[in-house]
């Protein structure tokens, strides 16, 4: 009898509570379940079929090279399965991302000496195991994601559920009809951009104006970090396990000076010296020898690339990419080179005293997947990801790890409902 008791105690508050409940439920319905996916930036691309496709029997080196040449960060995995009726069933079965393939390939290359004077793409084809590995095999190592598309007439609510419930999904493909070709993609940053477009509305600002310290993710464990003088291979090894981002800190001051993200990995293919000089984890019993020209013949010298040097080189590359970027690129929503950040040497950061909205603005402006939370001295305290933010605005019943205080929780309270153990319960 919770609702009745509240009404008696508050006297005339019952009508006001009912009116508030109607307001919140209408806000929820109108904004999320009435906005079609087609309204999300990038959901509909100008090209009839913008998605790059790979068959299960395609080779991994060919897939990596195709994505690199096409400046595409992800591709659809297809399998033409025919039924006895001659129709295709589940033609699109997965989605593979460029960083996952590159990190897997580097891990395989670093298991043996190989030919370390070759460029990245050539090294893949010269390595027997990598050259023979098919896309289908990677499913055993969970290196490609399940295919969960949305249709053009589905809503933002549907896309947000997918991001919140399936932790491995970073991109949601868009199709006109089930089993039809992919016509666009919904990214986590695009969802945040759409949410920010409603800045100023009470129901959104009630959540977005809260400071980060009020959210559980801001007080979780610190992100994995490496020292600026460690070799790049150490960061790559961490990325292959974490898939989020590596904070690069100064050994003396312990301050954050940069970051190495999955979105930076194309640089190893762009610049042959970065790939060759990445070195290998210090526990590996061999050194990388890089050729240099001399007057009489070629000589070899030991050369390693530190994380700090990589960050500086990344900044120079981003400056060039920004100058040469074109907004008309049909693949820009999944482009390897975003051309957005002019200071790639500076990591995306926020303070715990910043609001959730400020973190959203930072991530969308930089098109980054994460922002490092630092204190006033530049020491890393935590990390906030695009998925963390989307989960705040997603139904708590989809993920029991999401606690109260979110937009949906507040809306449910106003309508006399609550969520307990992943179940929606109506107060009696």
TrEMBL record:
Gene3D superfamilies cross-referenced by the UniProt entry: CBS-domain
Per its UniProt record, what SUPFAM superfamilies does this chain match? CBS-domain pair (SSF54631)
- Which parts of the sequence belong to the CBS domain? 143-201, 341-400
Q: Quote the InterPro entries the UniProt record gives.
A: AMPK_gamma/SDS23_families (IPR050511), CBS_dom (IPR000644), CBS_dom_sf (IPR046342)
Q: Where are the transmembrane segments?
A: none
- Which interval of the chain is the signal sequence? none
Keywords for the protein's UniProt record, in alphabetical order: CBS domain, Repeat
Q: State if Zinc is listed as a keyword.
A: no
Enumerate the PANTHER family for this protein. AMP-ACTIVATED PROTEIN KINASE, GAMMA REGULATORY SUBUNIT, OS01G0633400 PROTEIN
**Which protein is depicted?**
CBS domain-containing protein
The organism is Leersia perrieri
Question: What lineage does the source organism belong to?
Answer: Eukaryota, Viridiplantae, Streptophyta, Embryophyta, Tracheophyta
């Amino acid at each position: 009898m919770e609702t009745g008791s509240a009404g008696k105690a508050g006297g005339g508050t019952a009508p006001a509570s009912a009116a508030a409940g109607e307001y919140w439920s209408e806000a929820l319905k109108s904004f999320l379940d009435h906005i079609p996916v087609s309204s999300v930036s990038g959901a509909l691309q100008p090209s009839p079929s913008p998605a790059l496709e790979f068959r299960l029997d395609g080779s991994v080196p060919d897939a990596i090279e195709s994505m690199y040449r096409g400046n595409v960060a992800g591709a659809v995995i297809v399998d033409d399965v025919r039924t006895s009726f001659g129709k295709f069933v589940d033609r699109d079965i997965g989605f593979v991302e460029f960083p996952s393939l590159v990190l897997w390939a580097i891990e395989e290359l670093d298991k043996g000496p190989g030919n370390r004077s070759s460029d990245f793409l050539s090294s893949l084809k010269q390595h027997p195991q990598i050259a023979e590995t098919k896309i289908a095999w990677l499913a055993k190592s969970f290196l490609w994601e399940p295919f969960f598309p949305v249709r053009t007439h589905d809503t933002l609510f549907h896309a947000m559920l997918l991001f919140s419930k399936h932790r491995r999904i970073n991109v949601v493909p868009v199709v006109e009809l089930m089993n039809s070709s992919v016509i666009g993609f919904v990214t986590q940053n695009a969802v945040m951009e759409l949410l920010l477009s409603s800045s100023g509305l009470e129901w959104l600002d009630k959540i977005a104006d809260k400071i980060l310290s009020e959210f559980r993710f801001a007080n979780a464990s610190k992100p994995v970090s490496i020292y600026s003088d460690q070799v790049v291979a150490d960061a790559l090894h961490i990325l292959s396990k974490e898939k989020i981002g590596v904070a690069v800190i100064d050994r003396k001051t312990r301050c954050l000076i940069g970051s190495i993200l999955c979105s930076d990995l194309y640089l190893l293919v762009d610049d042959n010296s970065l790939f060759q000089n990445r070195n290998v984890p210090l526990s590996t019993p061999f050194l990388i020898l890089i050729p240099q020209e001399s007057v009489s013949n070629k000589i070899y010298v030991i050369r390693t690339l530190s994380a700090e040097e990589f960050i500086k080189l990344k900044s120079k590359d981003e400056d060039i990419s920004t100058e040469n970027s074109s907004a008309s690129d049909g693949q820009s929503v999944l482009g390897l080179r975003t051309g957005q950040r002019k200071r790639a040497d500076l990591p995306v950061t926020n303070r715990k005293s910043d609001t959730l909205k400020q973190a959203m603005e930072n991530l969308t402006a930089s098109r980054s997947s994460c922002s490092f939370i630092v204190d006033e001295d530049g020491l890393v305290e935590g990390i906030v990801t695009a998925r963390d933010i989307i989960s705040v605005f997603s139904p708590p019943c989809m993920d029991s790890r999401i606690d109260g205080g979110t937009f949906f929780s507040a809306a449910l309270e106003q309508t006399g409902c609550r969520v307990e153990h992943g179940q929606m319960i109506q107060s009696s």
